[in-house]
Design a protein that fits this description.
The protein is α+β, with helices and mostly antiparallel strands. It contains 5 helices and 10 strands, in the order βαββαβββαβββααβ. The chain has 2 domains: 101 residues, Alpha-Beta Plaits, CATH 3.30.70.580; 144 residues, Alpha-Beta Plaits (2-Layer Sandwich), CATH 3.30.70. It is 20% helix and 29% strand. Strand 2 and strand 3 form a beta hairpin. Helix 3 packs across helix 4. It starts with a strand and ends in a 17-residue tail after the last strand.
């Protein structure tokens, strides 16, 4: 029997998703909790790995088991053994043909950026931060050249194991939400939200694109620079990798035939 789970987590305390020998990853914690509930070893496969400090709102995993339990029991039982910063949101029994990674038609990420002269406190680890005012129109103009199928080598980490740097970015939406505050008269504080959806992503691809967007937003480079970076197909041409703290894996998109949830409450928590 194959079970799919939707999992959310705050990534601050973990060395990313993928299992490591020290056991300080989200996958390690999830498999340990599943093993305690199922009383047998459980190995999971995920829709998309996340790096250290990156959060997940709807990571999807699947695993095989002989244990017959109601779907609600998989949720409550597994959560009993999970730390407070990881939670199973839903469980579904799926056909054996379902594969959390291979069946995903696209993947979604969001980056939340705080614009403020003062660094975040309550939001530490949950937002990126800039202390300069961002030009939204310049960032949107720059983002437009990334839509479609491209060689994204300029935004690829040196440790990336993907077979090809050619990926398709379906959308990159940039929105802004003002913060009501009279504290900082020299700048209007706000949250910027960057939403990415693509067929697949290279290692550090979103964070490297964010580094370039911020450099354009604060006026360090013109919008046309993004196209030059893309065409260079060299990591040296792009800005430094941006902070992981504001990055959220929103989850994969599947064909409706699998009848899996496409949203969780956490989607509406983000600014």
């Amino acid at each position: 029997m194959r079970i799919a789970l939707g999992v959310s987590y705050n990534g601050q305390a973990y060395n990313g998703w993928q299992s490591q020998t020290d056991g300080k990853t989200v996958q390690d914690k999830l498999e340990a909790a599943l093993g305690r509930f199922a009383t047998h070893k459980v190995s999971t496969l995920c829709a998309g790995r996340t790096d250290s400090g990156v959060h997940g709102l709807m990571q999807v995993v699947h695993f095989d088991t002989q244990l017959q339990r109601p779907e609600s029991s998989w949720v409550r039982g597994t959560n009993t053994f999970l730390p407070s910063d990881i939670a199973v949101q839903w469980a579904r029994q799926v056909p054996d043909a379902f594969h959390s990674r291979a069946c995903a038609t696209s993947r979604r990420y969001a980056y939340v950026l705080l614009q403020s002269p003062v660094r975040p406190s309550v939001e530490t680890g949950r937002v990126g931060w800039v202390f300069n005012a961002m030009n939204g129109e310049a960032m949107r103009q720059a983002a437009a050249c990334l839509i479609g199928e491209h060689d994204f080598s300029s935004f690829r980490a040196s440790a990336c194991q993907a077979l090809s740097p050619v990926k398709t970015l379906h959308r990159l939406d940039i929105t802004r939400r003002a913060v009501a505050s009279s504290l900082h008269r020299e700048m209007e504080c706000c949250y910027w939200r960057f939403e990415f959806e693509g067929s697949a992503f290279l290692h550090h691809m979103v964070r490297n694109i964010m580094g370039c967007l911020v450099a354009i937003g604060d006026g360090s480079h013109p919008p046309e620079w993004m196209a030059e970076v893309l065409a260079a197909r060299s990591r040296d041409a792009a800005a430094p990798t941006f902070s992981p703290h504001g990055l959220y894996f929103m989850g994969p998109v599947y064909d409706p035939q699998w009848n899996l949830p496409d949203r969780v409450p956490g989607f509406d928590w983000l600014p």
